[in-house]
Design brief:
Blueprint (H helix, E strand, L loop, with lengths): L2 E4 L3 H12 L5 E4 L15 E3 L2 H5 L5 E4 L6 H10 L3 E5 L9 H11 L3 E4 L6 H12 L5 E9 L25 H4 L2 H10 L3 E8 L11 E7 L5 E7 L6 E8 L2 E6 L5 E5 L6 E3 L7 H16 L9 H14 L8
Parallel strand pairs: 1-2, 1-4, 2-3, 4-5, 5-6, 7-10
Antiparallel strand pairs: 7-11, 8-9, 9-10, 11-12, 12-13, 13-14
């Protein structure tokens, strides 16, 4: 297959390297040359700065890895051209033109996969399996925390100019760190927003929100508290689910899941496979996308999944009315 990667920031570079690691070498790059990353590893690849010219290479699949607010500028023409889409999350910064994207996919016949890579984390996959087994009884409440110091994400660039820090590019902590809004839906189905506090409270030199405290409710009265921030040091990303008969805890720091039950003196610990590291999730999701594009699998995170997560994020931000 021929691949087109749109955007060559950090995630676009990761996807290029993972495609190469998986044996794919027919790759075209579409970029605006605004990335501050070095270009040494682009030697030998076709690079286009015009989308029409890039699509004239007739890629089978397009990886949309440019800033969030620009996703649909690439995705819609690529879908109409018949390409399969790997859409980085979130699918966009608003609901505008999403129906046009749906229609373009129908017209072109391609499939869309949304890149919420935490669906490929073995710890969260284990949490989902244990929940399905009912090991903690009925889930009653949960707490998810994700805080990470924004200036430390990409030390090679000025964080104030990154898309994560710019509202015009779809940044802000809610859209940028929206992974929990997807994987909680993946576990429990649709959730309703009860309350949200979103603000800029740190000393970071940004104009977007850097903290969100969110209260959601899922089916069977499950309450979910989600905290997101741009200023936590050291970083933390963890999940704790309390049920009627026990507790499940996952921590991204070691990737492990711990199961606590009333009849156990010590937790049962489920470690990630030996050799697992952060890029393993990205490799596994790219491997899945290759299977989607070749017709061997259906997307495990569909465009509609991505739109539901975006709707919830927009509700939290107050840009969309909360569903009753």
């Amino acid at each position: 297959m021929r691949f087109l990667i749109a955007g060559y920031g950090s995630v676009g570079r990761r996807h290029l390297r993972n495609l190469l690691a998986l044996g794919e070498h027919d790759i075209v790059l579409y970029r605006t040359r605004k990335s501050t990353l070095p270009e040494d590893d682009l030697l030998g690849f076709k690079v286009e700065t015009d989308l029409s010219a890039a699509l004239e290479h007739k890629p089978n699949a397009v990886i949309v890895a440019n800033p969030t607010a620009l996703h649909l500028d690439v995705a819609i023409p690529a879908a109409r051209a018949g390409c399969h889409l790997f859409l980085e999350k979130p699918v966009s910064h608003s609901l505008e033109r999403l129906e046009e994207l749906r229609e373009s996919l129908k017209f072109g016949g391609g499939k869309a996969f949304v890149g919420f890579q935490f669906r490929f984390h073995p710890g969260l996959q284990q949490v989902k399996n244990l929940l399905q087994q009912g090991v903690i009884g009925r889930p009653l409440s949960l707490r998810c925390e994700w805080g990470e110091y924004l200036p430390g994400w990409h030390p090679w660039e000025d964080y104030r100019k990154s898309y994560s820090a710019r509202g015009d590019l779809g940044g802000g902590v809610v859209l940028t760190l929206c992974h929990p809004l997807d994987y909680l839906r993946w576990f429990f189905g649709e959730g309703s927003l009860l309350q949200a506090f979103v603000s800029k409270i740190s000393d970071l030199e940004i104009e977007v929100e850097d903290v969100a405290e969110v209260l959601l409710q899922f089916s069977d009265h499950l309450l979910a508290s989600v905290h997101l921030d741009y200023y936590r040091r050291p970083a933390v990303h963890r999940l704790e689910i309390t049920g009627s008969e026990g507790l499940l805890a996952w921590d991204n720091a070691d990737g492990a899941v711990r199961l606590y039950r009333a009849d156990m003196n010590a937790p049962e610990v489920f470690l990630p496979p030996q050799g697992f590291e952060r890029n393993t999730m990205f490799l596994d999701e790219m491997r899945h996308f290759l299977n989607v594009a070749s017709g061997r699998e259906e997307p495990i995170c569909t465009l509609e999944d991505g739109i539901r997560a975006l709707e919830l994020a927009l509700q939290i931000l107050g840009r969309l009315p909360a569903c009753s």
